[in-house]
Amino acid sequence: MAIALTSVRGTVRRGMTLGATGAFQPTRLLDVRLTLLRDPDTVLSHRQRVRVHAGTAEVLGRVLLLDETDLHGGESAYAQLLLESEMVVLPRDHLVVRSYSPVYTLGGGVVIDPHPARLHRRHRAEILLHLRRKEEGTPQERVQDALLKEPLSSLDALATKLEMEPANVADVLQTLFGEGWLVQVGTARVPVSVWQQWQRDVQAGLQSLYDKNRFNVWLSRSVAVQAVRLAGATGAVAERAVAEMVRQGLLEEHGERIRLPGHKPLLNAVEIKIRDDLQEVLAARPLDPPARTELESRHPGRDRVVRNVLHALAEEGILESLGPDEQFILVSALEQVEAVCASLHRDQGGFSVAQVRDKTGMSRKWTVLVLEHFDRQKKTRRTGDSREYLGGPDRNPSQIEEVVS
């Protein structure tokens, strides 16, 4: 995978780690197990200065052997690495250790704890026992580590990777669910910390778009799905994750669009005044609304502001935009017309443009615009000059009856 970064020249260096804010904590002190190459001439001494490589990062530091004075070729021991600059590593990450000068490979190591609380005292049996237990880990700790690195691992994949029986892995997973460490997202088992990070990524992605256009409310569902996919989820899991966020009330859904709960356009004082004026004018003429150009003429020199405010009212679900010329009508007026269509269909099995026009008092132009809008929404279906009312996905018969009555 490739990531394009902009405006970072001079600030990004080889060895840096890319992650969400707070996802990683750099360190200058590591608990490790070091193993030297099987070379009889290789020797590593306590407090020897070395080069530590993790990923593409290279950092200078000193080796603090915890139970040895010198380590010889092929030998292994617990140690701490006291680094001269920060590095980002995780438990069980692998390191390469090279001599300071001349440069040659001494051996490698595995990170046991990337953030020990302090420098350890040497030759202490209890410290060595603590590191041994931490290195080996309980079955539960090993499964947790594996899931944090690869959250979507299947049970069989975990069992193979950890060299555990599938039944034992299943028992551990059941325990983790019971403790609230794991959550089910679709068919995936996801650590709570990963799930919470997905939520933050989605919220940050939506907020970023709101910041770019303060008149927006509803955004494409794909924005949230893509945010979860970038965090490492597959397409199917990302879709399920967004659906679960909607179910939990973390997002609100309208068709294929979503928003942060309760989000509304951010209008300034001038825009609020224009909004109130436009709503008053449209409410006075609900079934014969002024054309957009007429609305713009009420605020000379502010055509763009008027269009933005109309867009904001549409985003809030107060107005609906119809036709290629963006003519705006109140949603409540559309509901009145829909109720008329439902009534005509119930009484006579179908209706024409003229019949809806006569019942509502709308102009023919507006009647056609509204009925074509209903056709696109699949609330009505046209056959020749007649239409039948099909109902809408968000309306039920009792609601229609309420409007008619």
Explain the overall architecture:
By secondary structure, the protein is α+β, with helices and mostly antiparallel strands. It folds into five domains: 27-134, Translation factors (Elongation Factor Tu (Ef-tu), domain 3, Beta Barrel), CATH 2.40.30.10; 137-180, Arc Repressor Mutant, subunit A; 196-259, no CATH class; 269-327; 331-404, Winged helix-like DNA-binding domain superfamily/Winged helix DNA-binding domain (Arc Repressor Mutant, subunit A). Helices cover 42% and strands 22% of the residues. It has 14 helices and 17 strands. The chain has helices spanning 125-136, 139-149, 155-162, 166-178, 192-212, 221-230, 235-247, 269-284, 292-297, 303-315, 331-348, 353-360, 364-376, 397-404, and strands at 27-36, 43-45, 49-54, 57-65, 70-72, 76-87, 94-99, 105-113, 182-185, 188-191, 219-220, 252-254, 257-259, 319-322, 327-330, 380-383, 386-389. The strands form six sheets. A six-stranded antiparallel beta barrel has the order 1-6-4-3-7-8. The protein has a three-stranded antiparallel β-sheet with strand order 11-13-12. Helix 6 crosses helix 7 and helix 11 (331-348) crosses helix 12. The longest helix is centred in the middle third of the chain and has 21 residues, at 192-212. The chain is elongated and about 100 Å long. 24% of the residues are buried. Residues 393-405 have low confidence and may be disordered.
Question: The CATH topology of the largest domain, please?
Answer: Elongation Factor Tu (Ef-tu), domain 3
β-sheet strand percentage: 15-25%
The unreliable regions are 393-405
The N- to C-terminal Cα distance equals: 59 Å
**Sheet/helix structural class:** alpha+beta
Please name the CATH architecture of the largest domain.
Beta Barrel
Largest sheet: 6 strands, antiparallel, barrel
